[in-house]
Structure formats: C-alpha cells, structure tokens
Amino acid sequence: xxxxxxxxxxxxxxxxxxxxxxxxLLVDGTNTQALVWLSCLIDEPDHxxxxxLEMEAQLREIHGAIPAQAPTHLILPVQGLIADPVLQDxxxxxxxxxxxRLLLTQRGRNDTMASLAxxxxxxxxxPDPHHHQGAYxxxxxxxxxxxxxxxxxxxxxxxxxxxxxxxxxxxxxxxNPDLRLSQLRKQLGLRHLExxxxxxxxxxxxxxxxxxxRKIDASSVGRWQRQLDIQMASSEDITSSAPLTPGEPNQxxxxxTGRGGSGTRLLAEVCMGFGLHLxxxxxxxxxxxxxxxxxxEAVLTNLAxxxxxxxxxxxxxxxxxxxxxxxxxxxxxxxxxxxxxxAMLVGQELMEAWPKAKLVHLVRHPLDVxxxxxxxxxxxxxxxxxxTLGAAYRALGRNLxxxxxxxxxxxxxxxxxxxxxxxxxxHRSGHRILEVRYEDLCDHTTAAAAKLARxxxxxxxxxxxxxxxxxxxxxxxxxxxxxxxxDLCGPIAxxxxxxxxx
Length: 502
Hints:
Layout: E1 2-5, H1 11-18, E2 24-26, H2 31-43, H3 47-63, E3 73-77, H4 85-93, E4 102-106, H5 109-118, H6 133-160, E5 165-169, H7 170-175, H8 177-187, H9 223-232, H10 238-241, E6 254-257, H11 264-273, H12 292-304, H13 313-329, E7 337-339, H14 347-353, E8 358-363, H15 366-370, H16 383-396, H17 407-428, E9 433-437, H18 438-443, H19 445-456, H20 469-472, H21 482-493
Parallel strand pairs: 1-3, 1-4, 2-3, 4-5, 6-7, 6-8, 8-9
C-alpha cells in the first residue's frame, strides 16, 4: 500500500492509522529512504524479506520487542513518488504492480499552506516563512500547484493501467474517522477487527512529527484561519488576557512531564488515581496522545530558534486544543491535564497558555536514566531527537555529529540539556514547578503521593504502584561510563539531592 500526495496533506497520519491494524507493517523512514526502499522492491521483489528484517531490528532497538504475528500488508508512505516519473514508469511495468494499492491524499489548500509554514525544516527550498512571508506564500502556492498537478497525473496513469487507487480527502476522513477508516481497510483487504484487537504495532515519527498512535481528528482543520486571526491581533496580548470562550475548561491543567525514561508513567498512574483526567487517548506509557503533534511542533520550532510570526499562536493553539477535547469528552469542572515527557522542552509556551497551570516535573538519578536504552530525545533517527541533541551539543560547545557518539553519552547530554532548561526556567519565571523524585515515588509511595495530592488540590486515595525492581537499576557499579556521565550530570543532579554514591 503506497501512500502519497502533496506535502502536508495527511500522508503520515493516514499511513499511521492504517498501520494500527495488527496485520499491517509500516515501513517508516525519511522520504529519501522511502524512495530507495520502493525502488529496491521494484527491482528485487525478494528484497521485501530483508526490508522486514531491517525494520524489526530497528523496532528491537527502540522498543525492545517486535510483534510475533507476521504482517500481510506493507504500508509505505512515499511522498516523493508524485515527483519521480522514472519510478512511476517502473512501478507500472513491475511484477508488483498488480499487488499494489495506491492511496493519494488530498487536503484544503489553506490548511496545507499553514501546515507548510509551521514546518520549514521539511521544505528547505522554500523561503523562510518567519522572515519573508510574502516570498514564502508565492513559493508555497507554486509548490502546491505543481504537487497537485503531479498527483492528478499519477492518478490518471494508475487508472489508465487498470490498477487500484484511492483518493483520500483529509477533511472527509476527519469528519468520521472510525467509519471511513473501517471502509478503507475493508477495501484494502484488511480483515475486520474487534475493537480490542486494535493495538498499535508501529511507532515512530521519522517521516514527520505525526504520532502514529494518535487518532485522527478534526482539530487541525481550519487552523489557518485561527492563525490569521492571531496575526490580526498584532500587538494585543492574547495569551493571558483573553476571556474564556464557550467550551473552555473552568480550571487550568496539571501538566505531567519529565525526561523520557524517568518513570513518568508511574507519575501518571498516581495522578489518575486521584481523579485527574489525562485525556481519552493514552498509549501504554500513559502519554496523552491528543497533545503530541502540537507540542512536538512547538518543540521543533523552539529548539530551531525560529521566531514565531504569529505572536502568542502557541498559547492560542494550546488553549484551542484543550477546548476541542475537553468540551467533547469530559465535564468542564473535572480536574484535567496531560502527560508528555517532551512537554518539558516548551515549559514557557505552556505557562503562557495557562498562567495558573501546575507543572509536575519528575526527576530520576541520571545514572539510572543514562545507562539504559536510548530515549527518543537521545536518538538521531527522528526530528525531536535531532533537534534536542543539536541544541544540546551547541549548548555544550561540542561541534560533533551526535550520531557518532555512543548511546550512553547521548543519553547523558539529553538528560543534562533538558534538566538544565527546567532549572533555568524555574529560576527565571514566577511560575511554580512541583518537583517529584522517582525514587521517592517508589520507596515512599504513600507519603510522596499524599504530598503531591495536596499540592495539586486533588482528592487523595490509596495508591498501589506496581514497580519492577529489576528495571529500577540495570547497570553495574563498575560500569566504565559512570564517571563520564556523572562529570556532566552531577552538578545538576546534586540540586535534586542525588549523589554519586546514592
């Protein structure tokens, strides 16, 4: 199943939703990688087996395991197909053509233009939208005109050859995603699933900043108009003085965060036990998936150092996302919030959106965090990791490619950078950050949980945490990397009461 279309029309989102079927394998990667993989499959159909083995190796590194059931459908998001006539011709005459299904995505022009402007790193050939808006709009309009012509040409070729293709409209898909995805899966030959079978099989964000596990919804439809409204407000401070609009939650959120791999799932379990609503779409780590795309987008813009041309737009978009989900799913007077480790990279934006929000920062001894498998923010195989490590290495004055450094050092740099930002933000702002140590949650659960409930004004209840003792410390005291990690992380770790001996 080839998923293609003009840029920012929902290619990654559609592929990710189809890949939640247990019989599907999502071959995720950059656009260049996707074109190479597709070309290899055409020239050597037997390459499919080695491609699957390569993907499984990546899954083991990232997630520690792979699903046991063999897939029957391969999903390949490949935006660049529409602009590669040579590859198109090879496809049409290949032995695989009869077995392939082409899905072409389509989206409203204004929303596509707005989405392109929010991700300038994905279209480096366009003028910088933050500094040359006029030139950007002209160039982006031309790019989309050419892309739509390419989509129409590919569609015509596919139809003339008698091959199967589908045109998937983003707005129609978001209007009733469950129904339309069910219809599409049936047309693609994927067996019907009972709801409990629908477990995400493929995760990652290497093609875009889309989260594969987040359900498709209409929260981004019409976002261009909201951005225009924000721009028209010019010098008005809409982030803190704007009145509540219909559907706005009656109270600010509780934001749970902490460097990934620190045990934020346990923190979420405690707060949910106190009645805190973290959203209707949670993954196994209890991350609030409704917030992933928006916060990741803010992280990428923030770490790249782009000036936001729409003053206060992050605050406005965050508040709009809260209205969207809260008004549809939960009582407005219920304590609410969200949990996402990467939210700690945009604390300023979150507090501008909700000046009275409570941010809970979970910390953990750096040796336990760094001497384990890498976290997304310490890998260069995804945009968030590349942006985080790039900013961290610049802050350290380390003029090297992070990819050449060993995992323990990238973990340490990532930990140091993220906690340094939190410390700087805490001292720079008047907003209160609640700090909780992972070790206290594990060793003194009742006392730590009761204190947290008081600070958050939540109802206390009996908390029973399931903590795997073997996972708390997976390194040996004679590990040769300990000194190197502590030299970098020790000064900050000591601010939280950690010592090398502890």
